[in-house]
Amino acid sequence: MQLPDLNLLPALDALLREGSVARAAERMNISASAMSRTLTRLRRVTGDELLAPAGRGLVLTERARQLQPAVERALADALSALRPVPPKDLASIEAVLTLRSSPDVHMLFLPPLERRLRVEAPRVQLRLLPEGDDDPTVLRHDDIDLDLGHYGALPADIRSKRLGVERMVALLHRDHPLAAGPMTLEAFAAAEQLTVSRRGRLQDVLDRALQEQGLARTVRATTSTSWAAALTVLNGGALAILPSRVAAHYAEVLPVVYRPIPLELPTVEFAMAWHRRNDDVPVHGWLRAAVVTIVDDLLSP
């Protein structure tokens, strides 16, 4: 049996990603005519058109869409197999590690992570990127090494580890009328509030829970960062709804306090995810272990 030409795999990956012969050629740094000839060969090998005319452009066929995850995995595994075995002495490793997470995670994680880095892996650089579209399949590419967030079902090639759960609390100026003691549900609902939402949502699960109790709250503003909410709390009027560990951090550096919300709300579970090609890479293992330690420290009483 004649084996397929594995040299076609990178070209197939480029065509499936770009959905265009010209863009795939640019991605592969070859001419459009050469990529067109490669597409002809791929069609012959796969027995499918792969890219079908649609208006003035091309679209992936159903078979092409089915092939895409397998092609991405195969190419990633091949590239991983061809990499040299890295040294196991972390102090001698030169690498750039990219971690994607929310700004709050950057704020809480970077100081202790940088301290460990300086001592244990001084030649490694960190690159922290803001959270994206909640699509962990970007880990199949080399752009992101570790993703911290909330996940549902994951593909087989994406690993994950549950890190813990968070509860939401109310952050208030220490002189706010509700800061003195436990809040009643009615007093909480009547207070002006600030919310944090990456997508700018003014309502969330808290509003639905209040509606079930026949109550509603006044959201004065929403912001994409907890820091902006915490600084606004300093005005003394509104309270902000934040994860408890984030609120605890602000209570250490600002004249604010945090109080439990007098309402049963679902906890927020968070995890880290990475691609399986990095399972046995020492510096990646170090990063994941460091994240687990930092989370344990943050969640400890």
From TrEMBL:
Q: Which residues form the HTH lysR-type domain?
A: 4-61
* Pfam families (alphabetical): HTH_1, LysR_substrate
Q: Which GO terms describe its molecular function?
A: DNA binding; DNA-binding transcription factor activity
Record InterPro entries: LysR-type_TF, LysR_HTH_N, LysR_subst-bd, WH-like_DNA-bd_sf, WH_DNA-bd_sf
Entry keyword Glycoprotein: no
Keyword list (alphabetical) reads: DNA-binding, Transcription, Transcription regulation
Q: Which family does it belong to?
A: Belongs to the LysR transcriptional regulatory family.
> What is the recorded name of this protein?
DNA-binding transcriptional LysR family regulator
Lineage of the source organism?
Bacteria, Bacillati, Actinomycetota, Actinomycetes, Propionibacteriales
